[in-house]
Amino acid sequence: MHPFYSQMLSSYNVNxxxxxxxxxxxxxxxxxxxxxxxxxxxxxxxxxxxxxxxHSQAQNNLAVMYALGRxxxxxxxxxxxxxxxxxxxxxxxxxxxxxxxxxxxEALGKQGFVI
Length: 115
Description:
mainly alpha
């Protein structure tokens, strides 16, 4: 993937502040560490665990991984769903990421994004 694409979407990293008391906070931090190590399968597992608990930062980062094709079975619909869930909670990065995406019927058919 061209590096320009990854700079359009913003994700949280291991150094960002996290509300550890919020459900999914610990899972989110574990996922960030794995993503930093480029262990994307493990990061996906922990982001999904945190995202399913309603952690907006985990939802956003999971969506970024789907959008960039870093996970198995990455589909635009999955990324869009997680971006929307995070944005509904007021996550600023997720809202920004939604503005970066342009999804066409052709892109959906090819399981890819136009970023």
